[in-house]
Amino acid sequence: MSGHRLAGLIVAVLAVGGFVACSEDPPMAPSSSHTTTGDMHGMSADAATTGLEPFTFRASLDAFRIAQLPNFVIRSKTRTDIVIQRSVFNPGPGMWHTHPGPSFIYVIEGQIRLQQVTKHGCTKTPVYGPGDAYFEVADQVHRAIVRGDKPAVVLVTRFNIPVGAAFTIPAANPHC
């Protein structure tokens, strides 16, 4: 897939409302009454609160290289998956985990921050709200913390996921 086609795919997905969280459940019909239980992030498919149903879409991409110099380069030497989700996170802290590839997140509703384990110890990001975007580094142990008493709804695009592999991997509690 050419760089222009990949960029076009990403823009098209964003235009229709596309990215998000860490559930690996297949997309649900908007009229579904499904409730996700036992998931890793305390996500809920109860869309009554926000009116936005969680979904996950996944596809494989052939090796690609996008170079929009001088500021932007992204490359994959092998076939990998791209995952696009919309997730609903319940208030409070989620479970510790990692992702095998980088993630770009856009906040639709609510207030969310990350608690991360870095080489400098445990850190927290600023609080992100509607219209904010942030980036998650591949293989970094972290968890989402939803602030306030309302769920957070986010759109996520995950790159460089091994074909067919899990894109959310539970991690041990680092006791931050």
Explain this structure.
This protein is mainly beta and 176 residues long. It has one domain (3-170): Sandwich (Jelly Rolls), CATH 2.60.120.10. 8% of the residues lie in helices and 41% in strands. It is built from one helix and 13 strands. It has a five-stranded antiparallel β-sheet with strand order 1-4-12-7-10, with no helix packed on it. It is globular and about 40 Å long. 27% of the residues are buried. Mean pLDDT is 80; it is low at 1-50.
How many helix segments? 1
In the CATH hierarchy, the architecture is Sandwich
Number of spatially distinct domains: 1
Number of strands: 13
Give helix % range.
under 10%
β-strand percent reads 35-45%
SSE class: mainly beta
Low-confidence stretches: 1-50
Largest sheet composition: 5 strands, antiparallel
Summary keywords:
five-stranded antiparallel sheet; disordered N terminus; Jelly Rolls; four-stranded antiparallel sheet; mainly beta; globular
Task: Give a topology summary.
Blueprint: H1 3-16, E1 55-61, E2 64-68, E3 72-76, E4 80-89, E5 92-93, E6 97-98, E7 103-109, E8 111-118, E9 121-124, E10 133-136, E11 142-147, E12 152-162, E13 169-170
Antiparallel strand pairs: 1-4, 2-3, 4-12, 5-11, 6-13, 7-10, 7-12, 8-9, 8-11
Write a brief structural summary:
The chain has 176 residues and is mainly beta. The protein has 1 helix and 13 strands, in the order H-E-E-E-E-E-E-E-E-E-E-E-E-E.
